[in-house]
Amino acid sequence: MCKDKYTRDTQKLNNLKQVIIRIDYDGMTSAEAVVKELGAELREKYFSSMTRTMLNQAKLNLNNAAEIARTLSIPIEELKNIPLFVFDAQNFPGTKDTVKLEVSNIYTALIVNTQQYEGVRPYREFITWFIRALYGIEPFLSIKRFGIRKKSGDPYESMEEISHIYEPEYYFGAIVDDGKGMIRREYQDSFWNEKKSIKVNYNRGIRSARLANGKDGMQVVLDIDVYVDEGIIVKNGLDFKVNFEQIFNCLNDYQYELYKKVVTVEYLDKTSE
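The structure assignment produced for this chain is given below.
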């Protein structure tokens, strides 16, 4: 059945657990200077606390060190000693989500742990403002990779329950069993949409889990990372200083289309208005 009528605006409930917006860059001279310049506004409008740490002490669950090192052509060992400024908000303005902003000389990441997710708009507006401010402070900033990653991971009692939410042919292949004796099943696809000039890391998985009621069940994981890398940025002449929000929307819209592929019409009906 066609899913074109369902949009992000019509879908009012979802099972999203985490959103990660990450920008890798070169040409940053001092994250400390950026924090000094923007710290007062960040504290007044967005975040309740800030800590300074080092990259090797941060919980980089959003990526691995090898990926950043490869993107920026930096030896992994050098990453460990890079200062990292971490801002925290228990209730980001206009939301009920817990949000963390990480700022360093090589990347900025906005990490949203959803409590009652109502859309990406407040985070898009914030990161657009932040990147524009960053360019004002760091005129030689050069973005090498920009990506949006969204993850979900709900527990379920049975494969039948899962099949009402996720499309079996996209998520689990041709065969769906009742999960008896199953420990883990994973699928990982990495591809490039040439028409849209967007790269994707598309991960789906199911694993055995203990439910809150003490019963054995299964946890379904959906992890979609859409991004543009340096090759795409250069080839398409992407100007983040001028068109950051437009580029953001292109990635976000495509990500939602990929999301719709793996969820059922039944689920989209139940979560839309």
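Interim note for the steering committee: Residues 19-149 form one domain. The chain has a mean pLDDT of 88.
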